Amino acid sequence: MRSAGVACALACGMLACGSDPHEGSDRDTVEVFVPDTFEVSDTRDAPDTRDVLDTLDTADTLDTLDSADALDTLDTADTRDTLDGLDTLDVVDTLDTVDTGPSDPAACPVPSMRSLYPGPIPPFPYGTWPKAEGCIARPHDVIIVLGCPSETNGDPSRCQEKRAEIADQLDEAGWADHLIVTGAAVHNTWVEADALYALLVGRGVKADKIIKEPLARHTDENIYYATRIMQEHGWTSALIVSDDPGHLMMTAICDANCCVDLGHLTVYEWEIVPGLDVKAGHYALIPPATANDPSECPLIAAQIMCLNQADRLACKADFRL
Q1: If residue 180 lies in a helix (H) or strand (E), which one and from where to where?
Q2: Omega into 287 within 30° of 0, i.e. cis?
Q3: What is the DSSP letter of 126?
Q4: Three-class SS state of 125
């Protein structure tokens, strides 16, 4: 009974925040081995060392030292001094940052939806998400900004301003070199892609980095049309932006992985500056990403996710655009 109550409460709480704004419209440490300091004494002793010492004074003895041995001694001492000054933690930290994964973040392995959303209810979308790391934390090809409606008078809406802010932060932090703004005129006469484009340019993003996609009316279409642009440019990886984490988790994941099925979407937190992360989706085209497992979709659909699949027009299995 408690699980059912929680599920119902969560459903009521998340359906509003996590839904597409378009819905409801009309359609190791490193060990370095350093040899012990070489012996300064010349080991090439005469047959009788005492006789040699009797015939040579101290200066002569010093003169007979092998100069190469002396240099070796100095070099070894210098090396030991240098090693003693090394911060072992710095060495370890440097090694830890080395990423040996694929160069293309789209080819990086990601957890399955089954492991991320085991049920019976989805994770709280407004809590902490996994942080992008390893090969996923490489710069992506493009940032896709999902559209949402303008105000009825054409002014930018709060969701548009927030999405433009997040996209600008990701761009400024070097997470991608290009942007796609996507969205048609859905609720009114104002094209969403145009509004997002103007906001980004106003924030200082170079206009020639931004591509407008003005046809999409819902999240599945945002992803579908943006994917086609990616394919035209030879891009394989994208960061998907919304102002609402619930929208990304509850809607976009389903639309990308269980409907459009041309790429795979996983959500992460991305570091902008130390201490500041933003939530966004890691979207990888198939290939190089591993194909989606269709058996996972009913599992997440049973968790108050994928609620609008019947109305989608860009689904691979029932394409109606």
Answers
A1: strand 176-182
A2: yes
A3: T
A4: coil
Q: Are 191 and 286 contacting, i.e. CB atoms less than 8 angstroms apart?
A: no
- How many angstroms separate the CA atoms of 271 and 248, rounded? 18
Per the CB < 8 A criterion, the answer to whether 146 and 19 are in contact is no
Q: What integer is the mean pLDDT of 138-148?
A: 98
Strand-pairing partners, residue 210, are 179
- 265 contacts 282 by C-beta, under 8 angstroms: yes
Average pLDDT of 198-221? 98
User: What rounded mean pLDDT belongs to the chain?
Assistant: 79
Rounded to an integer, what distance in angstroms lies between the CA atom of residue 60 and that of residue 37? 24
Handedness of CA 232, 238, 242, 243 (dihedral sign): negative
pLDDT tens figures, 72-114: 443 444 444 443 443 433 433 433 444 557 899 999 999 999 9
pLDDT, average across residues 261-278: 97
CA 88 to chain CA centroid, nearest Å: 28
pLDDT score of 21: 57
Q: At residue 82, what is the residue type?
A: T
Q: Among the residues of the chain, which ranges form H helices?
A: 2-18, 49-55, 58-63, 67-85, 88-96, 113-116, 158-172, 192-202, 219-233, 245-247, 253-254, 297-301
Residue 171 reports pLDDT greater than 60? yes
Peptide bond just before 294 cis, omega within 30 deg: no
CA-to-CA distance for 260 and 268, rounded, in angstroms?
Answer: 20
CA distance 132 to 78: 42
98 residue type, one letter: V
